[in-house]
Design a protein that fits this description.
By secondary structure, the chain is mainly α. Helix content is 70%, strand content 5%. It has a two-stranded antiparallel ribbon with strand order 1-4. A two-stranded antiparallel ribbon has the order 2-3.
């Protein structure tokens, strides 16, 4: 799609404000997880790049020199396209690393520490480096620039990002399969209440309770955003790649991954006793309620 350069700069400016607002909102635990550290790095990188793009646009008559190269609107469009490709390349690696961290936190009850913060920082730097390396050396990315003078260039061709919808679709299918399995297991055990199945039945009820509560907590917070993403899937409307990666999306992804891992791992006994380690989340309050009978069975 073709978007005017002022609109691109305005979108990036509002995105920077939103990024920093959400980072400030999560300031108490922003550095306790990989997604928190990556959110800070994203806010810093995007602020610096937005200032660079704005400076180039203001001096688009060719008076801005960098290492002997005249920077014009062509370079603004080129850098925006490169930025979008780097963001698209980061989507899946960030989701995979965050899901592995959440799995270890919930299943192994790994506590946050200074060593973990350092590891998260190193992984963040490595991901930025590998994404840029992939875009410049390994991908088939070809810039799309109009053949005209930079004085007549007022719009940039911007690629769409599909990775967000792919990740949401995969996580939704995983969550739906786990919920369906929990419902089917409960019904099967109700139909065959044998004595040797009492223990399995109690575990199934615990899993079903955890899945239901997880879905309720998650949907209470993010239902509107899920509906919006579903509309994007149905309509031929794309998300500009330079807007695809932002702190708001990372906050949603954090809650979504916590929900999926809780349903898959299902630490019902730890949750009932308040011993389960749930990753930090500024939007969903992961509190669970179990009946006394359920606690005795678990």
């Amino acid at each position: 799609m073709n978007i005017s350069i002022p609109s691109i700069l305005l979108g990036l400016g509002w995105k920077c404000l939103l990024n920093w607002a959400l980072v400030f909102l999560q300031r108490n635990h922003i550095c306790r997880s990989f997604l928190g550290v990556f959110s800070v790095s994203l806010a810093v990188v995007e602020t610096v790049l937005t200032l660079i793009f704005t400076t180039i646009h203001i001096h688009s008559d060719g008076h801005l020199l960098l290492l002997g190269l005249q920077l014009t609107r062509y370079h603004t469009c080129l850098l925006v396209q490169i930025l979008g490709q780097v963001y698209s390349a980061l989507q899946w690696p960030v989701a995979v690393v965050a899901s592995l961290e959440h799995f270890c936190t919930i299943s192994l009850r790994a506590a946050a520490s200074r060593a973990k913060w350092v590891i998260c920082l190193l992984v963040t730097i490595l991901l930025w480096y590998l994404a840029a390396l992939y875009v410049f050396l390994l991908s088939d990315f070809i810039p799309v620039l109009e053949d005209m003078s930079h004085h007549q260039m007022h719009q940039c061709w911007v690629f769409h990002t599909t990775e967000i919808l792919q990740i949401v679709t995969l996580l939704s299918l995983t969550l739906g399969c786990v919920a369906l399995h929990a419902v089917c297991s409960t019904r099967l055990l109700k139909n065959h209440p044998l004595k040797d199945q009492i223990k399995d039945q109690s575990r199934t009820h615990s899993r079903g309770s955890v899945v239901c509560q997880v879905l309720h907590i998650f949907l209470n917070t993010w239902a509107l955003l899920l509906i919006f993403l579903a509309v994007l899937v149905l309509l031929p409307v794309g998300i500009p790649s330079y807007l695809g990666l932002n702190v708001a999306w990372l906050c949603f992804l954090n809650s979504f991954l916590i929900a999926v891992v809780l349903c898959v791992v299902c630490p019902a006994s730890q949750l009932a006793q308040g011993l389960a380690a749930v990753p930090p989340d500024s939007f969903c309050e992961w509190r669970f309620k179990f009946s006394l009978a359920a606690e005795e069975r678990t």
